[in-house]
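User: Quick sanity check before I run a bigger batch. Here is a single chain. Can you write out its predicted 3D structure?
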Amino acid sequence: MASPLRILHCLRAPVGGLFRHVHDLARGQAELGLEVGVICDAESGGEDAARALRRLTDSCALGVKRIPMSRQVGLGDWRAYREVARFASGLGVDVLHGHGAKGGAYARLAGRTLKRKGRRLGSFYTPHGGSLHYSPATISGKLYIAAERMLAPLTDGLIFESRFAARRYQELIGEVRCELRIIPNGLYPFEFYEPTLADDAADFVFVGELRALKGVDTLLEALADGQTVYPSSAIIVGGGPDADEFKRLARKLGLGPKVVFAGPQPARTAFARGRCVVVPSRAESFPYIVLEAAAAQMPLIATDVGGIPEIVASYGILIPPGDATALAAQMRSFLSSPEPFLERARKLQRHVAETFTVEAMTREIVDFYRAKFATAA
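Assistant: Done. Predicted structure follows.
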């Protein structure tokens, strides 16, 4: 009997949508009878990440290993990639799958090292936004784009969660010379439900990392716009590097008790605390929060960025990023007449349930591995 495919997923921080993707993919692959391992940063994510990784260990026949992986580029990257190579070599993996800019770099460099030693394996890469969010006009953007171009020849297969990400990669990095697949993220059947709102639910809820890229400042400015006509409230769920700055902005705009910063919470808990989900991001790849809001049948106001239009399709109204006036107009429209938003939410839930599943995501990725490098099917 042929041996099962042995897969090592490499990522930096076990947090956010990227980790959710790896977590679901690793579990799904294990359920298909494959042998899976995960290697990630030792310091990121706190106790929540530690608990999630402990649970994931039950699905990882090849283990879960944590090593130092710096967020910033530096000498530590050389040590991290060497450790990834040593771990992968000891496991005898068939597939090294890197996720995000750092995970993708370590996996592909480690793959090159092992191939030079005679190992037959495939190096796969899913950017998850990462380098694709950087402007080529900035120093950091130039650095990341140059690194991606250097690593491109080491890539055996590219996987994108959205058509947007595939286009963006080709615009920034250049022509793709390896095979690629567009395989969207998915949800489990149990994630689809009708929401039950808390008695004290706010009008609007934001769920995500508190940093400029996510557009929380735009949401606050929109809330302040026209408060005398349509006074509204919002709950901001999440944490991040710009949390204090957003709190100062809320005070400056005179929002006072109209805005509550609730800290990190599960999306399902957060959805019960707001009547309409707002996703004001300036950039995204294929955000889980939009999928999760759709699955929860939540009214949604989101920006027309990244892969969001590929999720929402014709079942929602998207606004330009960074446009507080346009956002305020949609928020007032929801407050004055919520039924059209609720009807779109019902239709979007059915669309997402039929289109974006963990089972389909897992099988398509495994089929891609096998088509390229499987030692046995």
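Residues 208 and 332 are 22 Å apart (CA to CA).

User: Great, the batch can go ahead then.
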